[in-house]
Amino acid sequence: MEQPVDLVFSSREETSRRLARLDEITAKFGNPFFITKFEKTHSAENIKKEFSALNPGETSGKSVSVAGRIMSIRNNGMFIDILDDSGRLQIFHNIKTLDVARADLLKLLDLGDIIGVSGLVRRTPRGEITVDAESLTILSKAVEPPPAKFHGLKDIEFRFRHREQDLAVTEKTRNTLRKRYQMISYIRRYLEDSGFLEVETPMMHTIAGGTIAKPFLTHHEALDMTLYMRIAPELFLKRLAIGGISEKIFEINRCFRNEGLSPKHNPEFTSIEIYQCYVDFTSMIELTEQIVSHVAMKLNGTMKLPFGDKEIDFTPPWPRKGMTELIREVTKLDLDKFPNADDALREAKKIGVLLEDGLCWGQIVEAVFGKKVEHTLIQPTHVIDLPKEISPLAKAWPDRPNVAQRFETYINGWELANAFSELNDPREQKARFLEQAEQKRGPDDPPHPIDADFIRALAFGMPPMGGLGIGIDRLAMLMTDSPTIRDVIAFPTMRPIVGKEAAED
């Protein structure tokens, strides 16, 4: 099979050549950018399904109109492959019987151009569904040349910086991002069918509350005040529940944290937070399993999915294990026997977890877990019984006052979900916030702020409630076998290119 035309010009030379062709097209056929619409009758996928019964060499006798981006040009335009949002389709021009105008236009087409074609559908003797073009319209000229190899990009940096080209030439990228957006739709429908109401909360806050993270700052000119981009929607969502808008609410939210980047971290990310009145954290465990297993089946038709060289089984129920229990299993260190922070710090150092002085017992437990245990949790696991000291918004167990009614779900060594029985005592919540403000943080981090409006809202009365947060980006990674978060975010945060490097790009 003849390969697509290779580009032989430098980018600058190729762009000049394409601009010259655009001028010629405009002179002979009119400016393609003046065209406002093209009446498509079919997609590539529609045609292949509708005419699947055609035998090799058989013509349907039915005319269709299709449009898409040129992916390959063969035999001087006799065969052109176009791509629309459903797939590729072959277009055939009979060079021997072409009228002069269409022959001239064919010579001016380039890879990446967007064209519209009308003609009869047939199956070639070799068995490929094809449209025999009877008319040809150029709808947009690709002035910027596409990648030299128009069948998948290998340069990772280029892929993420020029996502539109990556999408056009890489089927895996298209499928990955489509699955991400379908996944969000499936989650939304599942929750709505279960009686949950989707709500919205502010993205600019006067206090960076809801969790511990370094925020992005912005400035409101009219009010002359600093605002913080949302690091979590939790406190506003609880206030909606307090007001009684619904006993079951959720928000698919964009959050922003001014922290590092990694294969599983992006400064701008998506999560879903869910709150249900009159249930506790165990109901949130069940809901987590229901959502994730539902998504796995809808997207992939199976509960067992590959991830790298592993297979992950999402079939519920998933194991539930205590945080200190898991530390004990992996390291033999029983931190429950060392409730004093100094003693716990000493024992942590013995197993190679070197921590600074001044941390509370809960922070030490969390650090040891993160260093020694987290990466071992490949199959879905609910980590329960987290320290109350690191869970300021969660209820503690009445008979275990230092342990929170909270869980974190881990898959592939990543935290995927976080949930708890929500604390609804305004007096204790205020005390917890004050305690949190005293905890040791980074040298440049200010004390964690106290949200007085939220305390006031709690004083109005909040019903017992379970709350749950799930990381959408990480879930999309798991569902699409994507090793980095940048694969599942259409436009991940990247350092801008400047100077000579930008000109070369």
Task: Give unreliable regions as ranges.
Answer: 1-10
Question: Measured on Cα atoms, how large is the radius of gyration?
Answer: 29 Å
Shape: elongated
* Range of strand content: 15-25%
CATH superfamily of the domain at 169-199 and 229-318 and 426-487: Bira Bifunctional Protein, Domain 2
Sheet with the most strands, sense and barrel status? 8 strands, mixed
Average pLDDT over all residues: 92
Could you please say which CATH topology of the domain at 169-199 and 229-318 and 426-487 applies here? BirA Bifunctional Protein, domain 2
Would you tell me the structural class of the helices and strands? alpha+beta
Query: Considering DSSP H and I runs of 4 or more, what fraction of the residues is helical?
Result: 25-40%
CATH class of the domain at 169-199 and 229-318 and 426-487: Alpha Beta
Distance between the ends: 32 Å
List the helices and strands and how they pair.
Elements: H1 11-29, H2 44-50, E1 59-74, E2 79-84, E3 87-92, H3 100-107, E4 114-123, E5 129-140, H4 156-161, H5 163-169, H6 171-193, E6 197-198, E7 204-205, E8 217-220, E9 225-229, H7 234-243, E10 248-256, E11 268-277, H8 281-300, E12 304-307, E13 310-313, E14 320-322, H9 323-331, H10 341-350, H11 361-372, E15 381-384, E16 396-397, E17 400-404, E18 406-411, E19 414-421, H12 426-438, H13 452-459, E20 465-471, H14 472-480, H15 499-504
Helix pairs in contact: 5-6, 6-8, 6-14, 9-11, 10-11, 12-13
What does it look like?
The protein is an alpha+beta fold. Among the domains are: 11-151, OB fold (Dihydrolipoamide Acetyltransferase, E2P) (Beta Barrel), CATH 2.40.50; 169-199 and 229-318 and 426-487, BirA Bifunctional Protein, domain 2 (2-Layer Sandwich). Helices cover 33% and strands 25% of the residues. The protein contains 15 helices and 20 strands. The strands form 5 sheets. Strands 6-10-11-20-19-18-15-14 form an 8-stranded mixed β-sheet, sandwiched between helices. It has a 5-stranded mixed barrel with strand order 1-2-3-5-4. Helix 5 crosses helix 6 and helix 6 packs across helix 8 (281-300). The longest helix is centred in the middle third of the chain and has 23 residues, at 171-193. The protein is elongated. The protein starts with 10 loop residues before the first helix and ends with a helix. Mean pLDDT is 92; it is low at 1-10.
